Amino acid sequence: MAGIYTKENISNIYSLSPMQEGMFIDLKLFPHSTSYTQQVCFVIQGHFEMDRLYKGIDFLLERHDILRTIFVETKQGKLLQVVLKKQVAEVRYLDASHLPAPQEKINSIQEEAYNRPFDLSKGPLIRVQVIKRAQEEHIVLLTFQHIILDGWSLYTLLHELLYCYQNGSEQGLKTATPFVEYIRWIGCKSQEENAAYWKQYLAGYTRPSTIPITRVVDMGQFQPADHLISMDSELMEKLRQYAQQCKVTPYNIILTCWAFVLSKFNNTDEVVLGTVTAGRNAEIPGIKEIVGVTANTIPVRVRFPAHARMQDVIRQVQLEAIGNESHHYMSLAAIQSYSPLRQELFDHIFIYENIEWTDVAEGTALQAGMEIRNFQVHGRTHYNLEITVYPLEQYIKLLYNELVIDGDLIRAIGSHLMEVLDAVINDTGIRVDSIMQASTQPVETDTADFMDF
């Protein structure tokens, strides 16, 4: 490597985390795709100093190795992440306050930043743009490759950026545990034990539970669309009460209700779906403050015996989740290799986003008159459907590829999911074979015929 990629500028080299491996492979197949490109946008209201932000970004580049990391594949096919000693951040500033339509320019910049591919082998894999919209209103836009940051890390990074901006240094922040400690910890895990567990867990599951598609397109083609489902305060209170009474978590309640809907789509009594785990229970000092990708995607298998109480199914899902936590640290490709379905094991993912973005400045004494607001985070994976629950904001988002999945079907999915959830949280004794009778709201769509409601 030439230039800044000389041996003298390399600080460390190590392997990828399980989810990073999957992202690298997908991005290698579709290098111009926006899969795993993530973007966060927020507004700084009040007095703003660009120099302070520059310094804050420099502090974070020095503090976190992952922000100076590039990704390569050796001639032998081994995937590696290379930490550079120095890397210049891509930071741009634009004054759009004098333009007749500043928001149009901001939208254009945001779209360009999102659609411009990252080069994993060169970096930097994060871009920062600041746009002045009015005299005391600035838009901060961070666009990055998901391969360096998961949601938990993004929250930590934003908090530290605002802290460094306000305080002029990183003094007072906890010492950051480097991401390599997580990689080392994974390397000490027994892959033989992981393999044995997933072989047993997936044994006998030979028919995938899929989302019906209406069109077939070339791999990598994606046109994002979403459908939002509100969860009002009454529903959230009933969900909380049910969780407390049945000693299960709201996450496992909604997950199991979705699994039930999926089982009806596929006329089966058991399903496997993909879920995202945070990986923040690893036995590493400072794991909560590590900036990097500790998250992973794993399969979850749910069985629905006809006469079982739904709360018992949910409890079983929760018990299995607790039992398999030590086996989360294996790449999805490796897990899939223990199933005859391989990459067809599941075709969508379920995410529970328990992050309060409006609290990102908590603990940072912002200067008088300064306000951080309008946090927006968006991005996607390569899956044609992502179901993300935002319990703190009280809604569910169905992000889908409208090139292959019909919008009417997505709306039917949302309606049936809420019917099932409502039926379950209103009757702790409801049985699996009674849920269909409790769901009384028919959905007017041709695609609803896929379901036995």
Automatic annotation (TrEMBL):
SUPFAM superfamilies: CoA-dependent acyltransferases. InterPro entries: CAT-like_dom_sf, Condensation_dom. GO terms for biological process: amino acid activation for nonribosomal peptide biosynthetic process; secondary metabolite biosynthetic process. One of its GO terms (cellular component) is cytoplasm. One of its GO terms (molecular function) is phosphopantetheine binding. Residues 11-435 form the Condensation domain. Pfam families: Condensation. This is Condensation domain-containing protein.
